[in-house]
Amino acid sequence: MTVKKWETRTQGVMILEDIKDILGENSGISKLKLEIILFFKDNPETIDTAPMIAARLGRDTQAVERCLDELSAKDICVKLDERPYQASYIYAPSAHLLKTLAEVAPELSFHTKMELISMLLARPKKGD
User: Fold this and answer.
1) Which pTM value belongs to this model?
2) Are strands 88-91 and 47-49 parallel, antiparallel or unpaired?
3) Which domains does the chain carry?
4) Other C-beta atoms lying within 10 Å of the C-beta of residue 58
5) CA 107/CA 117 separation, integer angstroms
């Protein structure tokens, strides 16, 4: 039995290729943007700078920052400019949930709020 090439790829790469097939070559969504979206989906508690996200993805910092700014303009992530020194980014659904939790449960610590967000937005594990 021959192992097909796609079977040896990671799940993330297969998803990226499936999305690319659905959207078509000229959809305007780059592989890097899709990687960033999947990164935030897999790590909804992440609030980080472009260089740190680039390092985690193993990608060029300037390219990641451009994509993050474009994704921020489309409300997929939120750019937090008020942080000292360098802007940070957070997944938009996480930012909206964080704001809502701050309004309805202000007594919760930031850490607890982020744990709740992570649980709410986590992808179900296979078999769940």
Assistant:
1) 0.69
2) antiparallel
3) 30-121 (1.10.10.10)
4) 7
5) 16
